Amino acid sequence: MKNTRKLLASGTLIGDKVVNQENEHIGKIEELMISVSDGKVAYAVMSFGGFLHFGDKFFAIPWSTLRVDEEKKRIVLNVDKESLKNAPGFDKNNWPDMSDEKFTTEINTYYKFIPKDEVIK
């Protein structure tokens, strides 16, 4: 059984390929957004589309919806390419305020992510 690390430097994840469950390449990790209040990674910013980074669309993906595949040095996101084309995204030169409640609600809803501190009614 392979021993997996419990901590990784953010630089080891930046640039990693993102694949879906069907093993299709769907993007690349561009940045990690860390919550100042608790020090946890809130979102991974992933690029998708374009050619040689021209026309790339960026997406904030809730970190908890991703799985790190250390062995193959990649990130796995359970979303198909078609769903990603319709996902809320932004231009690499025009980033949203990722701490804005409207933004986080839209992203979390799209990826069906419910923060642990949110009570389900």
Verbal overview:
This protein has helices at residues 81-85, 101-110, and strands at 17-19, 25-34, 41-48, 57-62, 66-69, 74-77, 90-91. With 121 residues, the protein is α+β, with helices and mostly antiparallel strands. A seven-stranded mixed beta sheet has the order 5-6-1-2-3-4-7, with no helix packed on it. A hairpin with a 6-residue loop joins β2 and β3 (41-48). The N and C termini lie far apart (41 Å). The relative contact order is 0.17.
The share of residues in helices is 10-25%
Largest sheet descriptor: 7 strands, mixed
Record the strand order, biggest sheet.
5-6-1-2-3-4-7
Oligomer: single chain
- Gyration radius from CA atoms, angstroms: 14 Å
Number of strands: 7
Protein topology:
Blueprint: E1 17-19, E2 25-34, E3 41-48, E4 57-62, E5 66-69, E6 74-77, H1 81-85, E7 90-91, H2 101-110
Parallel strand pairs: 1-6
Antiparallel strand pairs: 1-2, 2-3, 3-4, 4-7, 5-6
Concise summary:
By secondary structure, this protein is an alpha+beta fold. About 10% of the residues lie in helices and about 30% in strands. It has helices at about 80-85, 100-110; strands spanning about 15-20, 25-35, 40-50, 55-60, 65-70, 75, 90.
List keywords for this structure.
121 residues, alpha+beta, seven-stranded mixed sheet, 2 helices
